[in-house]
Write a structure and sequence with these properties.
Elements lengths: L1 E7 L13 E6 L2 E5 L5 H8 L8 E3 L5 H4 L1 H11 L5 E6 L1 H16 L7 E6 L3 E5 L3 E7 L8 E7 L7 H6 L6 H7 L4 E2 L5 E2 L1 H4 L8 E4 L10 H4 L4 E5 L7 H7 L4 H11 L4 E4 L7 H11 L3 E3 L5 E4 L3 H4 L5
Parallel strand pairs: 3-4, 4-5, 5-6, 12-13, 13-14, 14-15
Antiparallel strand pairs: 1-2, 1-16, 2-3, 7-8, 8-9, 9-12, 10-11
Length: 314
């Protein structure tokens, strides 16, 4: 399971109720800050999530409403909070702009308050843990090096507790060894193998997060079968030409992508203050009923759909 907490959901400029783009994706002890719009450090404080373990930042592109909060966040780390290491991921041009902000504006000759690493993003896996990966994929927006991110749990074979109990496997290290692929010998001398207590291989949960984008046809493969798709919805369909001009989506376009890709849930963000939230939601739900509009501080749990959990991987 993944969780996503929205810290900022406004487009281009903040509104009275929406901050600029930022969200936190969580998986067990791992946290990833996706984009860092102006004021993100205050949103982190207000959300109650805190700064602990918030040491990986994934940037979708170089526009200021997605990176300017890095200046304030770095200042916070210099004066009030402390972390040992910070990794900032982004495309080449994005990192160039971020380095100017961090080194020329914030630090101005001072040493970073932590071990600071800039990770240039290329399409493919950019982070791997024992049970999940984070992959980057190219996105079409204004300017080069725009990326979206896919968070995906690794396929696994579920442990069949009832089967293990029927075989007399005690709770404790024996079950852990079976999950790890080792055989165990029971007190009565019987051998139990992993094949006896592990079910068919099942895919893991998928969460796809897209920042600003002006096209969806090149995102279909990346979004296919996602349990949740987070994507911008800057315009309504009545302003489709303006959306095209500025490289953004309408709510209808986002919903059409969700429908074609067969996602479990569509979560819309990057909402322009020129529209009413209920109109954005209505336009999306007319095409894809499982649509929601994220608000600042909304939190969603992203789980594998029950019907998919019962389908083995061929």
């Amino acid at each position: 399971m993944f969780e996503i907490l929205f810290l900022g959901t406004s487009a281009s400029a903040p509104s009275a109720r929406r901050g600029l783009s930022a969200s936190v994706v969580k998986h067990d002890e791992f946290r990833f800050l996706v984009d860092c719009g102006e004021g993100t450090q205050r949103q982190i404080l207000q959300s109650g999530i805190g700064f602990r373990q918030l040491n990986r930042i994934l940037l979708t592109h170089s526009h200021l409403d997605h990176i300017l909060g890095l200046g304030g966040l770095m200042s916070t780390f210099m004066r009030w909070e402390s972390i040992e290491e910070l990794e900032i991921f982004g495309g080449k041009s994005t990192l160039e702009r971020v380095k100017t902000l961090v080194f020329d504006v914030v630090l101005r000759g001072q040493k970073p308050p932590m071990n600071l690493h800039f990770r240039e993003v290329k399409p493919g896996v950019i982070f791997e843990a024992d049970d999940f990966t984070v992959s980057a994929f190219p996105v079409t927006h204004r300017g080069p090096d725009c990326f979206g991110y896919r968070f995906e749990e690794k396929a696994r074979r579920p442990f069949l507790n009832e089967q293990a109990t029927a075989l007399g496997v005690p709770f404790g290290p024996e079950r852990s060894r079976l999950v790890g692929g080792q055989e165990v010998v029971l007190p009565d001398g019987r051998m139990v193998t992993p094949e006896d207590v592990l079910g068919p291989l099942q895919r893991g949960t998928r969460l796809v997060v897209v920042g600003d984008t002006g096209r969806t046809d090149d995102l279909l493969a990346e979004a296919q079968g996602a349990d949740a798709l987070v994507i911008e919805s800057t315009y309504l369909d009545e302003d489709a030409e303006m959306a095209k001009q500025y490289g953004h989506l309408t709510a209808r376009m986002a919903a059409q992508l969700a429908q074609k890709a067969g996602v479990g849930r569509l979560i819309l963000t990057h909402i322009s203050r020129r529209y009413r939230e209920k109109d954005v939601l209505a336009e999306a739900q007319a095409v894809f009923p499982h649509s929601v509009v994220a608000r600042d501080f909304d939190q969603f749990a992203v789980r594998l759909a029950a019907d998919d959990a019962e389908k083995p991987i061929a």
